[in-house]
């Protein structure tokens, strides 16, 4: 696991020739929790960015953008074959990351991305940014995009429905990311009202123009995150159209836009496999990734080049390091062991990252509910204390963790016992060998 607590927070406000500031995200929607406090309190930043005193920390040079610009000049004059080659060249230079934090509104902010990276994530998406607001509103722009030097590879995701506006927004972030991503998968009502996300599936010429605009004018590659159509043929044609328009990487959520409930609807890995077979650019699979067995099975069944996880990471940010919650151990206890880590430990690490990289309290509150959800079901009065707290402090949240520990009933995260698996494989192999010898 990587040590990321010493990483330097990049103050984009102080960097030369940049329109961005490193404040934290103020998103379009509020995190959901029981009995939410007055929003003006939870919208406050949890603390001020730390002031670095050393000579190295005071370095105001731009972050390393060499990986971002490996595509060179915009690809408006490249043939289809050349675009595919450059797409793979870029993906390879990034190390072909396989374990990726999906974009989540109010949830995939910098401290959470850094926590997931420590526990095995190879890359991550920002929360969705609204391209029009990002270009028009300085306050939104200054608060919404936050990163640091160690926050790479990074996808910066926008929703958009105007090519020129989208390009304006994308140019502001391209020095600090490895892909500019188009959200073509959001199925929520706000996306329908705003005419973006999965509802652009009804206007494919507009989608094509969005991709072409960026592919022909940005120095970083364009990626797209999509949902599938009810008909497989439509999905394949959609993916091919995006590739031809200049998309360099495609993330496919294996559910339709009407299948919003991930627990009710299983993602269609066969559709993802079909897309992977139909296009020549890297493809990521999204859906049904709850633990590392799912990761392995998904990669094998779809042939995808990597996987995205969202909801499961919110409960267990150490998922990509092999840890799993008790829910996925039931019935297989003998093959799993206490990993000497629990969600309270992860929350403490997250809070420390929030002290280093400030975010609005509502984001922190949402993560507390997600990471401690199992604990709160055992001790609901602690959750009620949290909900009653209109103004959060780090001291209060650290005390909640201490209180839960004192109450007992620790809920560990589990690791698969590799030694048990190895032993079982040896026993099986020996048994097969003995049986084979006995037949002769």
Automatic annotation (TrEMBL):
Ordered alphabetically, the record's keywords are:
Flavoprotein, FMN, NAD, NADP, Oxidoreductase, tRNA processing
Q: What is this protein called?
A: tRNA-dihydrouridine(16/17) synthase [NAD(P)(+)]
Highest taxon listed in the record's lineage: Eukaryota
Entry keyword tRNA processing: yes
- Residue ranges annotated as transmembrane are none
Per its record, the protein catalyses:
5,6-dihydrouridine(17) in tRNA + NAD(+) = uridine(17) in tRNA + NADH + H(+); 5,6-dihydrouridine(17) in tRNA + NADP(+) = uridine(17) in tRNA + NADPH + H(+); 5,6-dihydrouridine(16) in tRNA + NADP(+) = uridine(16) in tRNA + NADPH + H(+); 5,6-dihydrouridine(16) in tRNA + NAD(+) = uridine(16) in tRNA + NADH + H(+)
Q: Which residues form the DUS-like FMN-binding domain?
A: 101-384
Q: What is its EC number?
A: 1.3.1.88
Family in the record: Belongs to the Dus family. Dus1 subfamily.
Do you know which CDD domains this protein is assigned to? DUS_like_FMN
Region (Disordered) location: 40-68
Q: Which InterPro entries match?
A: Aldolase_TIM, DUS-like_FMN-bd, tRNA_hU_synthase_CS
């Amino acid at each position: 696991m990587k040590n990321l607590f010493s990483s330097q927070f990049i103050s984009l406000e102080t960097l030369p020739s940049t329109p961005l500031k490193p404040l934290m995200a103020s998103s379009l929607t509020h995190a959901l929790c029981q009995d939410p406090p007055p929003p003006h309190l939870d919208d406050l930043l949890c603390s001020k960015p730390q002031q670095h005193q050393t000579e190295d920390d005071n370095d105001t040079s731009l972050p390393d953008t060499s990986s971002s610009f490996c595509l060179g000049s915009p690809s408006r004059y490249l043939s289809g074959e050349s675009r595919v080659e450059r797409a793979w060249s870029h993906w390879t230079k990034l190390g072909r990351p396989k374990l990726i934090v999906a974009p989540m509104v109010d949830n995939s902010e910098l401290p959470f991305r850094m926590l997931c990276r420590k526990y095995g994530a190879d890359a991550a998406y920002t929360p969705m940014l609204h391209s029009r607001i990002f270009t028009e509103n300085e306050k939104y722009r200054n608060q919404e995009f936050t990163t640091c030097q160690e926050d790479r590879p990074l996808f910066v995701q926008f929703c958009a429905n105007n090519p020129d506006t989208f390009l304006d927004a994308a140019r502001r972030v391209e020095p600090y990311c490895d892909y500019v991503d188009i959200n073509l998968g959001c199925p929520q009502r706000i996306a329908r009202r705003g005419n973006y996300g999965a509802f652009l599936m009804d206007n494919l010429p507009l989608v094509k123009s969005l991709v072409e605009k960026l592919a022909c004018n940005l120095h970083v590659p364009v990626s797209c995150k999509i949902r599938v159509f009810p008909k497989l043929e439509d999905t394949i044609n959609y993916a091919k159209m995006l590739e031809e328009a200049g998309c360099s990487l495609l993330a496919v959520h294996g559910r339709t836009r009407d299948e919003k409930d991930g627990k009710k609807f299983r993602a269609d890995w066969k559709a993802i496999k079909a897309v992977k077979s139909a296009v020549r650019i890297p493809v990521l699979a999204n859906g049904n990734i709850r633990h590392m067995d799912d990761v392995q099975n998904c990669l094998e069944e779809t042939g995808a080049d990597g996987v995205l996880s969202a909801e499961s990471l919110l409960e267990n940010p150490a998922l990509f390091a092999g840890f799993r919650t008790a829910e996925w151990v039931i019935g297989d206890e003998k093959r799993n062991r206490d990993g000497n880590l629990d969600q309270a430990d992860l929350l403490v690490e997250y809070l420390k990252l929030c002290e280093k990289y400030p975010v609005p309290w509502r984001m922190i509150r949402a993560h507390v509910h997600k990471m401690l959800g199992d604990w709160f079901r055992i001790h609901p009065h602690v959750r009620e204390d949290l909900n009653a707290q209109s103004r959060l402090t780090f001291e209060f949240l650290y005390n909640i963790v201490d209180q839960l520990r004192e109450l007992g009933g620790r809920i560990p995260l589990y690791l698969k016992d590799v030694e048990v698996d190895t032993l079982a494989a040896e026993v099986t192999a020996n048994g097969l060998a003995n049986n084979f010898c006995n037949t002769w």
